[in-house]
Amino acid sequence: MSLTNASPADAAGAAKSASHILATLSADARNEALTVIHAGLTAARDDILAANARDLELAQQAAADGKLSQSLVSRLDLGRKGKFDDMLQGILDVRDLDDPVGKVTLRTRLDDGLDLERVTCPIGVLLIIFEARPEVIANIAALAVKSGNAAILKGGKESTESFVAIARVISAALDKTKVPNGAIQLVTTRDVIPQLLALDSHIDLVIPRGSNDLVRYIKNNTRIPVLGHADGLCAIYLEQSADPAMAADVIVDSKTHYPAACNSLETLLVQESALTTHLPAVAAALAAKGVELRCDAQSKAALARVPNLSVTDATEADYSTEFLNLTLAVKTVPSLAEAITHINTYGSHHTDCILTSSPEQAEQFMAAVDSSGVYWNASTRFADGTRYGFGTEVGISTNKIHSRGPVGLEGLMIYKYKIRGHGQMAASYGAGEGKKQFLHQRLPLE
Amino acid sequence: MSLTNASPADAAGAAKSASHILATLSADARNEALTVIHAGLTAARDDILAANARDLELAQQAAADGKLSQSLVSRLDLGRKGKFDDMLQGILDVRDLDDPVGKVTLRTRLDDGLDLERVTCPIGVLLIIFEARPEVIANIAALAVKSGNAAILKGGKESTESFVAIARVISAALDKTKVPNGAIQLVTTRDVIPQLLALDSHIDLVIPRGSNDLVRYIKNNTRIPVLGHADGLCAIYLEQSADPAMAADVIVDSKTHYPAACNSLETLLVQESALTTHLPAVAAALAAKGVELRCDAQSKAALARVPNLSVTDATEADYSTEFLNLTLAVKTVPSLAEAITHINTYGSHHTDCILTSSPEQAEQFMAAVDSSGVYWNASTRFADGTRYGFGTEVGISTNKIHSRGPVGLEGLMIYKYKIRGHGQMAASYGAGEGKKQFLHQRLPLE
Known about the structure:
Chains A, B: Belongs to the gamma-glutamyl phosphate reductase family. Chain A is an alpha/beta fold. The first copy, chain A, has 14 helices and 18 strands. Chain A has helices spanning about 10-20, 25-45, 45-65, 70-75, 85-95, 135-145, 160-175, 195, 210-220, 245-255, 280-290, 295-300, 335-345, 360-370, and strands at about 1-5, 105-110, 115-120, 125-130, 150-155, 185, 205-210, 235-240, 265-270, 290-295, 310-315, 325-335, 350-355, 375-380, 395, 405, 415-425, 440. Chain A has a seven-stranded parallel sheet with strand order 11-10-12-9-8-13-14, sandwiched between helices. Chain A has a five-stranded parallel sheet with strand order 1-6-5-4-7, with helices on both faces. The two termini of chain A are about 35 Å apart.
């Protein structure tokens, strides 16, 4: 790893060169590097925590001066119970995942002695831009090495001392392995994000880890593909045939389990015919958890007799708002078609759910809603790489190409086509006398 | 299909709405639409050819005035032998491909009664920008309908009459099918490309079909992902152990089979130790086909005694030039490592080949060269969706994400995650007393 004061262009060039070597290493060589990084970080715990304490002191000062939020200070603290050990365990967890490199996904015999093979390979160079959380550097370095990608890391300035300490250890560790030192680049110089985002000839994918504002800024300022999501405006459609108790459970979980998460509920669409049968109990259950409702006129009227409710009039803007707190927008819709149109128009294509007893309504909803996750009778909070069983999560993508939804290691892979021949020429094939025909025989994937 | 004089934004909005319906149609409904389009175009042959003749007349006039190239006029002509029939057959060929929609690619039991499924689905709205060839409209409309994507088509102005005639037929045909009329939008108004490229909230993927300049312009002027390649700077590395006759065959085919194609050879890298053993015969074979060589000093010296050769001194720029004609840059390299570095530095990541008898050298080359196609002893001209057996070709991509190399229908697909549950809540799972654990049991894909 380079602790670079080099220019962003030099760092990116070095990462590109390293990526070409990294792409040829065996799974054993990559896994061994993760073992060595883990050992290095384990041995250097005291140094790293001392560096983190220096970051923390400055941050607490800044928070006292009102220049930094308390939540950022808390995310910065690597000394909190279990956090350092979790970081270490995460490296071993990534190491022990299936190797994503070199999987053959298509084999075709084009002709005798002319075989086509599609093989997974690393994308190349990742740029990871993240905010203060210092453990992200170890997590991302592990994902990059495991997947055979080089990575350029740019962290928030509040955790610079922690980053540098961790980076020194990773750098020293890589020197004992086959992974080239240049494969992980840490950029600590300030104000270089615009320069990095312009390096589309060397950087193949940007992964922002941080606030919605960070992601939105990055998406709007680069031609490099961005893996992630700016918004998570998830909706649930409550249909009249849903079991009322089940509906209240799922809606409360989706809204209140972790309101600041991108997969939390922000808009509840209620079928008109469920307003009196279902909504009052759901609203009471939400109110018991402290949720404030912003209702359209119809749903507000349906809740007029429910005691102890905090209900205000919804504005049009509420249906486009990711509240990230205990506020929920409620809207009445006549039927499934209008629910689908609302979600496809106002939503962020993240995760949306229908609550119904009707398989037909559920399947229609899941086919027509244009989101990365479409659920039937399950909390939107399940949208998560760990819950999906991916072993790790690179991020959650609302992109329409490459990878969508919770992204595991697969999202850091692309493929190449290999042809192994014996001197065949294209001119030998085609229509006409003496020309050969392609076999196009599908071969087993081994 | 709308023959729209509407604004680009309105056309894109209509396509987006139509895409949500199209995504829910069965394979039968989409295939039936292709049958009806085929029948409509068959019946309207005379009208379409008459419209094409009017385009052609104007184009021939413009060519006579020196305002248009003769090759563009030739590409415009739908009346050329076999061209109309090929266009018609192409629609049926696409119809008869496997349905790419709704393929289940992952199934995981998260818990009893809580199943996760990953299912292929259309990307959404495609923007296809193409130059004069009028048959492209039928080809793209067929690919879009087959893959369940809506499409906005913007063609070159020289073929406007042909486009409008074909579009009228497709529009009338779609009215008899379940595919919404708005699913295929033809934009005939001029100078709207910049406006279309700005509509990233409605358009999910841009596919340019035309010159390198068109592709480069589009890549540089939109945030929407672009599927394609601006350059095809393919290289062959001639290693000392290669069979000399085989080497000459493959190099001549790669260079001369169709020099204007993106998968044609532009740079020949010769191992130093093959300069005298291999290069003279290769050069003579190329010269017999009219190829002009641009050589570095070492390779030029090796060819000093070969008669009737057209050899000039290579400049540095020649190794970054896609000649697209019978010119070939030749460079001497000491060994495999330098060949790989040269290709990864100067190439366009399209298709590159090694000629060798050594499996070790070949595998190392194919692992380390960062291109969509990496070949061993086979012509670069095989890089083509039809030759790969994909049944159709959307384009050739040099992107590092989503799809790479020749792109078939799969490149127009993404996936979504469906969860079918029974009211499960995220809060029920995790560490601690009374919490449930995920099963993460892989299920068969049926």
